[in-house]
Amino acid sequence: MSEHVTATYRVNSEGRTIAHPAHHTLLEVLREACGLTGTKHGCELGECGTCTVLIDGEPQLSCLVLAREVEGAAIDTVEGLEGRDLHPLQKTFADLGAAQCGYCTPGILMAAKALIERKPTPTRADVCEALSGNLCRCTGYIKIIEAVEWAAALCRGESGARPADASLYGVCKEKPHG
Ligand code: FES
Ligand code: FES
After folding, report:
1. Does the beta carbon of 139 lie inside 6 Å of ligand 2?
2. Is residue 154 part of a domain?
3. Would you say the CB of residue 137 lies under 6 angstroms from ligand 2?
4. pTM of the model as a whole
């Protein structure tokens, strides 16, 4: 039988005391012990970004983090994005169709949230860089990038106008993953 540990995690501002196998990753603890299945299993090798959560505000790959090493840290998952209303990122992703199968979306939303909080007026290159560790097999990235830029504008209190449309096709040289 594997060794177990009991640890208290601060997830989405809520304390949770959990007994789990000592070798479990943060991804496993979030999904299996906390029931927070918004954070997705992908490659479990640190290559796809779908397991991205924020640890003390920084995007981290939860599949590569041993859970007990982040006891006491502030852990934010996609479930914590929504308050009384949708987060601007959730609104813009929905309105622009920036999620198709949606499997990559939780990780991308968390990486984008960290970017917008760190840099409220990101350039397109900043957006592409921030999402460079998040793979999406469906969208071609353009709508994702537009949605992040639009959400940043909404977070700055600017008007709700959606970005100029498909003018961006073919000109996003900094598009993540190329
Ligand atoms: S599941 Fe963590 S990077 Fe792919
Ligand atoms: S929407 Fe399907 S992988 Fe990104």
Report:
1. yes
2. yes
3. yes
4. 0.91
